[in-house]
Amino acid sequence: FFFHFLRAMSAAAMPVTLLSSHVSLLRRLGVSSLGFLSRSSSSSSSSAAVPPVEVHNPAGKHRVLVTKNLPGERWMQLLVAADCRVEVCTSPDVILSNEQIVSLIGHKCDGVLGQLTENWNHELFEALKQAGGKGMSNYAVGYNNVHVPSATERGIPVGNTPGVLTETTAELAAALTLAAARRVVEADVFMRAGKYEGWLPTLFVGHLLQRKTVGIVGAGRIGQAYAKMLVEGHKMDLVYYDPFPQPAFEKYLDGYGKFLESQGDEPIKWRRAESVEELLPQCDVVSLHCLLDDNTRHLMNEARLNMMKDTAVLVNAARGPVIDEVALVKHLKDNPTFMCGLDVFEDEPLMKPGLADCPNAVIVPHIASASLYTRGGMATLAAQNVAALVNGYPVWNKQDITPFLDMPIAEVPKAAPSIVNAKELGIE
Questions:
Q1: Residue 73 has pLDDT above 50, yes or no
Q2: DSSP calls for 151-205
């Protein structure tokens, strides 16, 4: 009786906090087993209070935790269609602590959809393993916040969301480039402060990009998309550095140069640098699109910053620690004609002291993926990763992820779009 009573109280989207009075009442009446609502930590004596959640599809077979509400509706539809009981954390805390996440995982949790701001280390994966977890997906294409070996050691697959961030991230990097080169933010602040008294020949003079040279460090999908925007939009010459040659990209550059010639225009020039040090002095704009690892942490240090032109623009929409931020602040202050555009920061969400005071820095709060299409697509891919893992479906193993984004829910492939440790776990 009491089980059916509490089920009736738990509507499809009712916050668990609203059920607290009913739970307390049933416990006073002697009903102690409320397994389908169990979210308690394995260490009840020392754990933090469990953050509130909103429950969707309460009768679902697989309990899935989502640590932040996500944009769009498709991701939720996929999880519900996969017979998941979905618990979305509604805590006002911007970043959840590991203690909070452990308490949310509780004794029984089949899968988690987590955020790039969370520290997914051995502690969280051990909690997920003990709760019977079958998978975790990061709501991001990058996963430097996830200690993948800890997940692999415990047999837990880790998903990510590639393929939907390329153009969106490249566009933001291009926007930072233009805003920095043309001093857009400085001029905006000037206008809002009521300082504009009339046109002046020397007012906020910036740098023309047309026919200059752009350099990209990391020629993956995002780096190439950014380069094409600058090459096609501004006819910029290109220097790229990547540990691996990119023959298809080079073929495109050759083809674009020939197209310009066919139109009576001067072709663009390009080359692949053998090192970052070779690239930096040649370029008017340098945009970072590399992964973060031991080789790229503080890639842009004091010595390399000093290799750049005094009037160059440095852009980072990759990962914050790729730049030594303390060295960057000093370089910006010592070289007022040097500009930068940053979407990410070394100690995110914090900035190193002095960065906010540099007028030659354009700074935005990690919004490179913040288009409706991309953020919704990321949610869809992350949700489908978890939906597939909790149901034992295989890995997709294909570059084209559009079927997960475009097909009717009932026709979406029964597969996980992207699992970063699939090979190590033998589930390819």
A1: yes
A2: HHHTT--EE--TTSSHHHHHHHHHHHHHHHHTTHHHHHHHHHTT---S--TTTT-
